[in-house]
Design goal:
Elements: H1 2-7, E1 12-18, E2 24-27, H2 33-36, H3 39-50, H4 58-67, E3 73-75, H5 82-87, H6 89-98, E4 100-107, E5 116-123, H7 131-168, E6 174-179, E7 184-187, H8 189-197, E8 202-203, E9 209-210, H9 214-231, E10 240-244, E11 253-261, E12 272-280, H10 289-296, H11 300-310, H12 315-322, H13 326-339, H14 345-355
Antiparallel strand pairs: 1-2, 1-5, 3-4, 4-5, 6-7, 6-12, 8-9, 10-11, 11-12
Length: about 350
């Protein structure tokens, strides 16, 4: 908001939204220090005008803006006459406390059910809104709308998954929820820690998961796209499994990308995305292979081999650890793979984790 203010002649630039009971929420986040100094005024405004039902100014403006194209600038005089504006008690109230009169509006809501946008407030001494400000707001309007839409979605998602993430934070697995573009909206502590190491996988400035290998990065992006199609009911991929090599470990990170859809429309209309599970074999400390093995009929040696397998050891290393020949270790590994219908190490580890999630 402060960047928008600096690019125009506006005294203040702020975000607004109509909430429950027609209260108007004004946000000074990202605004100038002078805007933050009058935050107290917004609460008084709602108490004086919204609660008492003085609605001629705000409600007419809200109805007009609800029909305005997203990102299209609207001057106050496009809605009312300047003479009518200057006599309104709501306008006088703000003018006396914030020293502003004229306003330029932007509808930034991509959802027709949400009434939200941006206000450009001009000093009372400025009789007209500059044409260059109208042109500038028209250029940035669509971009602001998209930015606010993403922020609103992410905020709703965080609220919804806060309790779930509290439980997921007790797991040795990294869990990320992404939108259909692959941007990570929320993740648990394990995923954040893995990304913070920047060894194998991390988040770029856009919030997407990237790797040292451009081909692997492209594979993650493609996996999210394919899985999103499944969440829309258009694709057939139930999960995509990827192995991400690391410089600091002989054991790669294992990624499982699964469909995620908000079928109850609790987050936003038409939300589709993916759930990415990140498995770091070096961190998996409490995986109960014995219970998993009992369920699938492993022998005692197969249980030991399976435990070493999910820890990331190669077949020769498993043989050495068990004190048996490499060929014998290979037989044990093939046996557990066959019994669990797993055609590779990634799928086997994922099945084991699904059966007995590692809880700290």
């Amino acid at each position: 908001m402060e960047a928008c203010r600096r690019a125009t002649e506006a005294k203040h630039v702020l975000h607004y939204a109509y909430g429950e009971y027609d209260e108007i929420t004004f946000s000074s986040r990202g605004g100038s220090p002078t805007l933050k100094s009058i935050e107290w005024m917004f609460e008084q405004y709602n108490a004086k005008f919204r609660v008492q039902g003085v609605t001629g100014y705000d409600d007419v403006g809200a109805a007009f803006m609800r029909k305005a194209a997203v990102g299209q600038p609207v001057k106050d005089t496009d809605i009312w006459t300047i003479d009518w504006i200057s006599k309104r008690p709501e306008v006088i109230f703000v003018a006396e406390r914030a020293g502003v009169l004229r306003r330029l509006y932007l509808n930034t809501s991509l959802d027709p059910l949400i009434n939200a946008g941006v206000h450009f407030w001009y000093d009372s001494s400025q009789p007209a809104i500059p044409d260059q400000d109208v042109a500038f707001s028209g250029l940035i309007g669509p971009h602001l709308a998209k930015a606010f839409d993403i922020a609103r979605w992410a905020q709703s998602l965080r609220k919804k998954y806060d309790a779930v993430l509290g439980a997921l934070d007790k797991m040795d697995l990294g869990i990320c929820v992404t939108d259909r573009f692959g941007r990570v909206a929320v993740c648990n502590t394990a995923a954040a820690d893995i990304c913070a190491e920047k060894d194998g996988i991390w988040r770029d400035l856009s919030g997407n998961l990237v790797t040292n290998d451009p081909e692997k990065t492209a594979a993650i992006s493609q996996a999210v796209q394919n899985i999103t199609e499944t969440s829309k009911g258009k694709g057939g991929a139930s999960a995509v499994e990827l192995s991400i090599p690391r410089r600091g470990s002989d054991h790669p990170l294992l990624l499982i990308v699964s469909p995620l859809r908000d079928a109850d429309v609790e987050l936003e209309r038409g939300f589709f995305g993916s759930l990415i599970t990140i498995i770091d074999a070096d961190w998996i400390s409490n995986l109960r292979i014995d219970l998993f093995g009992d369920a699938y009929g492993f022998t005692s040696m197969e249980k030991k081999a399976a435990s070493l397998l999910v820890s990331g050891l190669t077949t020769p290393e498993i043989g050495e650890a068990l004190g048996v020949a490499a060929s014998t270790a290979t037989s044990h590994v093939k046996a557990v793979m066959k019994k669990t219908l797993s055609d590779n190490r990634v799928k086997f580890t994922w099945r084991a984790l699904q059966f007995t999630p590692p809880i700290l």
